[in-house]
Design goal:
Layout (H helix, E strand, L loop, with lengths): L5 E6 L2 E6 L4 E2 L7 E4 L2 E4 L1 E6 L2 E12 L2 E8 L10 E10 L1 E10 L5 E10 L5 H5 L8 E6 L4 E7 L2 E9 L4 E3 L2 E8 L4 E13 L5 E4 L5 H17 L2 E4 L2 H16 L1 E2 L9 E2 L11 H11 L5 H12 L24 H4 L14 H16 L2 H6 L1 H14 L44 E2 H20 L4 H21 L1 E2 L4 E2 L2 E2 L5 E2 L5 H8 L4 H11 L32 H13 L3 H17 L13 H4 L13 H4 L1 H10 L2 E3 L2 E3 L10 E9 L2 E8 L10
Antiparallel strand pairs: 1-2, 2-4, 3-6, 4-5, 6-7, 6-11, 7-8, 8-9, 9-10, 10-17, 11-16, 12-13, 13-14, 14-17, 15-16, 17-18, 19-29, 20-21, 22-25, 23-24, 25-26, 27-28, 29-30
Length: 686
């Protein structure tokens, strides 16, 4: 089943993906069903009336956490004769509730047999993703008078789905049914509750499922309203900006995830359907994008990542002291160490980015207390950069997985198997060092020096970090510059040989500040030149490279998040025009996705396709794509904290019109920013 005919609702780590009728008929390889804590709790949820399947007249996504389906019995050709209509209203919030209403439009009474087939395979999300459903435990079903209990146990690991109804139902091992008599113009109604229960491998109750009754649905609605009300307001003459911003805010609310140890505090999960959990890199980068709008997400993210920071050497989890986690999972395969995500530390960039976020957060908020609270974790992260990440002894951050069975091969953000290559298309050996991570390390040292000097009362450490950063910058600009192309190499191999492909990663170097000023203009020209810039955005790999493919996951597609940081980097070095060009392309693309930018889309030339081409398996919504319009707003308006105040230096794309961002929170209280785009003089009519 493709994405086009699916309906998705979500609330953090819990989500439902169904057909447009509301039915769920999952296969082992499709992410359809009710999922929570990385487990599928419903794999079958099929409604019939008198043994007949239903067809959709329409469906509405009311909010991210609820949907409504309008159905009739029979095939599409029979719609005009339908004497019954069925409404399914669904809300998710921990678990989910479905309200079922049946209306009789006939002039005669009818007798109906209403049935819901229900089952669960309790598939681990990793098993669905890898298309391997190999359950080692026991499935069980318990039929009781007032409920149906579906379960799975493997030792002390247990997952259960408990189904009950407000109207009396007949439960059996494959679902439940009602016998209903309806007089003319009469309607029948029931509310079906589905609870999820989870017990960990040590017998610990991870979470009791929630019943989404009216009060909780109202609480979700009020929470969303408060979320929107607390965020800055965006008004624009160009409608796409304000509508895309609102869509991003709502999706960011939907993706808020509360880890079990946080007691209700939230951070952004990475993306639906595969990554509805905590990711170090994704959560940090999303927080950097959204800081001017939702700064409290950063505080939660920093605290939880600090609490789970690596403390030992563990080859299975690729863990080192001081290393920030990559991914945390709660499903069966993680619980029984069939994969290492409990948590897994195989990320080479999350650790320096942790330090970057802490400093950026303080610059915006003035929250000195958090900087002091996380001093030791920051120092441990910096020690990891110097003591454990330099696998070759060259002064750079390298990666090579120690878990060769289930660990990640590529531990940078471009983590697909073929994303790092030489110009001739061959793949380098391990360990590998990618360019953007060296920029993150440089930035982390510069920012940590500021924190050490101002807040940790350690000026000697600050001086040391600044010397190390200067040496890294000099070394990097010597070793990574591709002289015949005038850009920075994507990576180095362990012999110091350049992976000399032209890639979007060079834009992250501008953001980090590691680029020598005299080389910045050439880098900027590449980023908006025809090989990298498609008209919609910057491609991950330049057209003309051997491995270039406009729909290659990291070898030619356009990633909105990538472009937002590139635009930020261009602004840092004074290339406001180029940054505006990228912002305009990405925001134009967003209109074709109803304001919801996907994880990635095709890198085809804009003139060729006339619209952005969807990448077939892209996550949507996805956190750092959701954060992209927010960071682009920051770059277009030139919003930067400066000496305790908010500096504004706008440069909008031509034709953008006026933009207002009101009530921007920070250490300055709440302030407003205004900007007006330039007029396209060439296309003005007489």
């Amino acid at each position: 089943m493709g994405q086009s005919n699916t309906v998705r609702i979500l609330d953090g780590n819990t989500f439902v993906v169904s057909e447009d009728t509301g039915d769920i008929e999952a296969t082992p390889s499709e992410p359809t069903g009710l999922f929570s804590l990385d487990t599928r709790f419903l794999s079958t949820w099929v409604l019939t009336v008198n043994g007949e399947r239903l067809n959709a007249l329409s469906f509405d996504d009311l909010q991210y956490f609820e949907s409504r389906f309008f159905l009739v019995p029979g095939m599409a050709t029979h719609y005009i004769d339908a004497k019954l209509s069925i409404i399914r209203e669904r809300a998710v919030g921990g678990s989910f509730r479905e309200q079922l209403t049946i209306l009789n439009h006939d002039e005669r009474p009818v007798d109906l047999e209403i049935r819901m087939d229900a089952a669960s395979d309790f598939a681990d999300l990793f098993q669905v993703k890898d298309e391997i459903l190999n359950k080692k435990g026991e499935l069980y079903t318990e039929v009781e008078t007032n409920e149906l209990r579906l379960g799975y146990r493997r030792g002390n690991f247990r997952r259960e789905t408990v189904i009950s109804s407000s109207m009396a139902a007949r439960y059996d091992s494959k679902g439940f049914a009602y016998t209903v008599h309806l007089e003319p113009n009469e309607q029948w109604h029931t509310a079906i509750n589905v609870e999820t229960h989870a017990v960990g491998p040590g017998g610990r109750d991870l979470r009791l499922g929630l019943r989404v009754h009216g009060n909780e649905r109202l609480a979700l609605q009020h929470d969303l309203e408060k979320w929107i009300a607390d965020a800055p307001k965006v008004n624009s003459e160009h409608g796409r900006v304000a509508s895309t911003y609102r869509r991003s805010l709502i999706d960011l609310a939907a993706l808020r995830f509360s880890p079990l140890s946080l007691g209700g505090a939230t951070l952004p999960a990475a993306g639906l359907p595969w990554f509805m959990t905590m990711f170090g890199r994704d959560s940090i980068l999303t927080c950097l994008q959204t800081l001017p709008f939702t700064p409290h997400l950063s505080k939660t993210t920093l605290r939880i990542l600090a609490s789970l920071q690596g403390s030992r050497f563990d080859d299975f989890r690729d863990e080192d002291p001081g290393r920030i986690l990559h991914e945390m999972r709660y499903g069966e395969t993680a619980a029984f160490e069939e994969q290492p995500h409990s948590p897994y530390y195989g990320s080479v960039d999350a650790t320096p980015l942790f330090v970057v976020l802490l400093d950026e957060y303080e610059r915006w908020t003035g929250d000195v207390a958090l900087v002091k609270e996380l001093e030791q974790e920051s120092r441990a992260a910096l020690r990891w950069i110097d003591d454990y990440a330099d696998l070759v002894g060259s002064g750079y951050i390298w990666y090579e997985r120690r878990n060769t069975e289930t660990g990640l091969e590529n531990q940078c953000w471009k983590d697909s198997w073929d994303s790092i290559s030489y110009r001739d298309g061959t793949l380098p050996p391990f360990p590998r060092a990618t360019c953007e991570v060296q920029g993150y390390a440089y930035d982390a040292k510069i920012r940590a020096a500021r924190m050490a000097r101002l807040f940790w009362d350690d000026p000697e450490f600050a001086d040391q970090l600044e010397r190390e950063a200067a040496a890294l910058k000099e070394r990097f600009n010597r070793d990574w510059w591709v002289a015949d192309g005038e850009y920075y190499a994507l990576a180095l191999d362990p012999e110091g040989r350049q992976c000399d492909t032209l890639s979007s990663n060079i834009g992250h170097l501008l953001w980090s500040g590691i680029v020598e000023p005299e080389r910045a203009e050439k880098v900027a020209q590449h980023l908006v030149g025809p090989r990298l810039f498609s008209g919609w955005g910057v491609r991950t790999l330049a057209e003309g490279e051997v491995r270039y493919n406009p729909i290659g996951y990291h070898n030619g597609t356009i990633w909105p998040f990538d472009n937002s940081f590139i635009a930020w980097g261009l602004r840092r070095y004074g290339f406001a025009e180029e940054a505006a060009t990228i912002a305009s392309g990405i925001l134009d693309a967003a209109t074709y996705f109803d304001g919801r930018l996907p994880e990635a889309f095709g890198g085809y030339q804009r003139e060729l396709t006339k619209f952005p081409v969807e990448y077939p398996t892209a996550c949507s919504p996805q956190a750092w794509s959701t954060g992209t319009p927010l960071l682009l707003l920051r770059t277009m308006l030139g919003l930067e904290p400066h000496e305790g105040h908010l500096a504004v230096e706008p440069r909008l794309p031509i034709g953008m019109g006026r933009i207002e961002v009101l009530d921007i929170p920070g250490r300055w209280g709440r302030v407003d920013a205004f900007a007006r785009g330039r007029i396209d003089l060439e296309n003005l009519s007489d």
